[in-house]
Structure prediction request, 692 residues.
Amino acid sequence: MNKRAGAPPTIIDVARQAGVSIKTVSRVMNKEPTVHADTRARVQEAVAALNYRPQLSARSLAGAKSFLIGLLYYDPSAAFVAGVQQGATLGCREAGRHLVVESLQENGVDVQAQIESMLAALRPDGMILTPPLCDDPVILETLRANRTPCVLISPSDGGHGLPSVCMDDALAAEELANLLISLGHTAIAFIEGNQAASQRRRAGYERALKAHRLRVDPALIVPGTFQFESGVDAARKLFALPHPPTALFAANDFMALGALTEAQRQGIAVPGDLAIVGFDDSDAASLVWPALTTVRQPLAEMAMAAVEMLLSGAARIDEGDAPPVRVLPHEVIVRGSSAAPAKGRA
Amino acid sequence: MNKRAGAPPTIIDVARQAGVSIKTVSRVMNKEPTVHADTRARVQEAVAALNYRPQLSARSLAGAKSFLIGLLYYDPSAAFVAGVQQGATLGCREAGRHLVVESLQENGVDVQAQIESMLAALRPDGMILTPPLCDDPVILETLRANRTPCVLISPSDGGHGLPSVCMDDALAAEELANLLISLGHTAIAFIEGNQAASQRRRAGYERALKAHRLRVDPALIVPGTFQFESGVDAARKLFALPHPPTALFAANDFMALGALTEAQRQGIAVPGDLAIVGFDDSDAASLVWPALTTVRQPLAEMAMAAVEMLLSGAARIDEGDAPPVRVLPHEVIVRGSSAAPAKGRA
DNA sequence: TTGAAAGCGTTACCAA
DNA sequence: TTGGTAACGCTTTCAA
Prediction:
């Protein structure tokens, strides 16, 4: 009574081949300890011989897990998606899970319905949320109501009472500012962004100045939007100042690149007349001249950690305890755009 | 005999509520035409009232479809992943499918096993392959053996007898070269890459030169690797020529940016002394100064088309017929890096 | 340590 | 046009 050839083997085929019950095969596949070594070996042999792999849909229908992890994002930079995803897929593979990616519709029509629909259909074992979604109250509430474990990547301060993984933005910014200070700069401008991360970075920048007894000059702190153009505008304002800065710290690379462009247009030498540092180590940071001094976010590592937390149970939604927060180490990357101020001007 | 509260409603609950059999509910959910309008309305009402959504695992276990589309990639640029994925998730949502993303292990240990394992577990309704995987014979053979429909994105010429979607690289390159020629350039260098796309782009470049009766000078065609550094090296070689080119066409943006950097280092004005064009419209292309003239690949559109082909049955693996190939329109983006040659040199 | 049998929620075949 | 009922391939009680 062989199955029709071509059809993949099932647990029944394996059980028959190994001369055990399907339950025992199930135990072996799930690495349950209560199986005799000999039995286990026999089953594994049969599994290998038949090239058997359990089918996900059957497993998740019968059991409690879906073996699926969801990654939700909305309009992030390409580098961010790619980085996070690289880590998430890797983490999933190691855990025998699979990554389902959903990018939320542009026109946020009923975001809640979109998510509910996804949760109901997929029943993911957990969700990973990236900025700005990880700070969206509607989304967080929907997830909470569905009792789906989730981990936030770089949420704004507080983390909304949910488990999260992040890097120390303030510390990294402080290190970057310290670098500029140690090069001899005293007039260091800061271009802000419009997301939570920007505030943390600015805090680090100010901390470094104060620690070195340098004045935090409000005139040198200008707003931006994390976009290239806003960096251009900010730089234009700064260059027009009676006492322009000799160094410029942008809250992200895109704005730093905007400032760099504006400097080059105006014939301001970088790093000779002006040092520039950014944040994020975007692709472009190393593709311009001079290459940008910046900070690398450990995106892939953060996503891997998120998967781990999800599956280790660290992401259970227990009210009461403070949720776990993993802080991963960053890396300051020094390139050509930062140097000591020109002699005649410092 | 109510179900315990909190548990999501099942098809049985809906059937009871609507006073029909579960099979009828199933028919309505699957939009089968053989249901009376009144019955359909009653069922839909019950579905809405209970907020019912079919569970994927049960559907795929019982039926023939998994409602899953797989996206396989390996070490692509961030922009490429992000673009393709955006389109793929959108296409999936419209088709009621979900996108499972797998990034192949770095150390290509037994790629075949990785894929087989994924196919066996997930039984995806179709797979989307991106370069360079879509040209890997082992992978293609594995997929074919598993009878999994798949669509290749930008495969090398021939398309391996499988359905594919692409843009017209040669035509785009020809347009770009024509642009340079129309600006007055006659000595146009070409930096090659090491993937199939590079050859198509070079073909377009040569076609444009020949059409304008310009000489294709082998000395002006230098190899590269699609990496930034190889653009630097290539530019260095070209600049050292007795008669350096007045325009430079790089097979992708990264190499164009490398050339731009080298030009700036040597004090060669761009676009004044040297026009530079790239290919891909990477993020960085618009983040440098001068911004790069380049070609935008319709990545998201290509991925959407791939999903459509997969689900419309256009991607069936029929031996015999020529497989479908969808060619999507590209966009030449003219920015600051291209201009007419300086008077004294042309 | 092992197994028998009862689900899991849906689709699909065959009757009515 | 509808409905019963048997799969689908696995996990999970509960016994042995």
In short: The two ends of chain A are 88 Å apart (CA to CA). Residues 10-12, 22-23, 26, 29-30, 54-55, 57-64 of chain A lie near DNA strand D (CB under 10 Å from a C1').
